[in-house]
Amino acid sequence: MLIGILLPFQMATAASEPEYPAEVTFTLRTAVAEGKLVYIGQGGNIDGQVNPTLRVPENALVQVNLINGDGAMHDVVADAFGARSDRVTGRDASTVMVFRTGKAGEFRYWCSVPGHRAAGMEGLILVGKGASDAGDKAADLSHPPTDIPPAIGDRPPRDVSVDLHTTEKTGHLADGTRYKFWTFNDQVPGPFLRVRQGDRVTVNLHNDKTSTMVHSVDFHAVTGPGGGAEVTQAAPGKTASFRFRALKPGLYVYHCATPMVAHHITNGMYGLILVEPAGGLAKVDREFYVMQGEIYTTEAHGQHGDLSFSLDKLLNERPEYYIFNGASDALTKTHRMEASVGETVRIFFGVGGPNATSSFHVIGEMFDRVYHEGSLISPPMRDVQTTTVAPGGATMVEFKVDFPGRYILVDHALSRMERGLVGFLHVNGKADKDIFEPLAP
């Protein structure tokens, strides 16, 4: 009888016992490392790691302790969980961010002080065993800035052929973020094309059979109806061709010109064609191909997953992302631009747009020569800090690198850095203290 009374009581007590969430604590210290602003893990299995991945269970209570290690103003935020710390200034000042996780997934933490996320203060929060360590698995469609055909040199005009293949593919836009791009030859921007003044150029445009849209190409280097667009409106699975004479030297944009033209351009359908003058260009040590574009998404900047195109934002010229070479991290993480002290660098720079003018600038350098608006036979402007490039426009800049370090490519409308518009040029070599010398306090 006694057993019959006690057993149900014991079962009821066990069933009603609450389940407490796991509690996880991390400590991060802010620092400057390799020319970047970063978080460095302290203690446990993240000790010494730069921007460590924070691995936590589902439905866990997470505490992130932040210690200011460099004296500048910092914080840590995790918008996916509605969490943020206070901002702290001064070495060894500290603050705390606390949040509770939900289901498995991949999320981001970063510093919300303007410019700090772009400067390197960002890491991954990995929730649950099912989350992937590799993060975003989308295809890389970004165009390497070093992927440039060799110089034309001093040759006579001849017949050349250009093959463009238009495709519609989902690709990597930012960490954890995917977007359906429309491309020339599976890259954003399209291939860098290089011909000589006087060349007779045959263009073959093939629209992939898997496309959902008609595509075409308009070359600003072409004299003829629509720059070729009128005769290259190719339906899915079809090919259209035309031939033109490259009459004038210069650096020119090409892009899709199928209505709605701005829609095709913003989705990635733009590139550059260089028409070298007779005798070719002067020799330089390094050449890079960089193009700026805009992405208009329904979702707010920073949201993860598959993003969708917003016509309203395009028409109102309110992009969520600005990009160099097809992704917000194409020229910071995916591809590396390098030069050595004493070398001359040439950048072919264009703006696909479709809407925003760029104020192109390399932080820590001056352009020795700027071939304004892509004009190659006009005298270049000299000793220029920032050059303006219109949407659908291009410029060629040249400069000698004199001091080692990391130089940052930007549009000097600098708030655009916060939306992905930044690139790095890494210069190697011996430092000359006569040019630049940090002074100890």
Automatic annotation (TrEMBL):
Region (Disordered): 136-157
Source taxon at top rank: Bacteria
Xref: InterPro entries: Cu-oxidase-like_N, Cu-oxidase_C, Cu-oxidase_fam, Cupredoxin, NO2-reductase_Cu
Reaction catalysis annotation: nitric oxide + Fe(III)-[cytochrome c] + H2O = Fe(II)-[cytochrome c] + nitrite + 2 H(+)
EC top class, as a word: oxidoreductase
EC number(s) from the headed UniProt entry: 1.7.2.1
KW Oxidoreductase (keyword) present: yes
Cofactor: how and how many bound: Binds 1 Cu(+) ion.
Cofactor requirement: Cu(2+); Cu(+)
Domain Plastocyanin-like: 168-277, 320-424
Alphabetical UniProt keywords: Copper, Metal-binding, Oxidoreductase, Repeat
Membrane-spanning parts: none
Gene3D superfamilies xref list: Cupredoxins - blue copper proteins
Similarity section: Belongs to the multicopper oxidase family.
Quaternary state and interactors: Homotrimer.
Protein name (record): Copper-containing nitrite reductase
Species whose genome carries this gene: Alloalcanivorax profundimaris
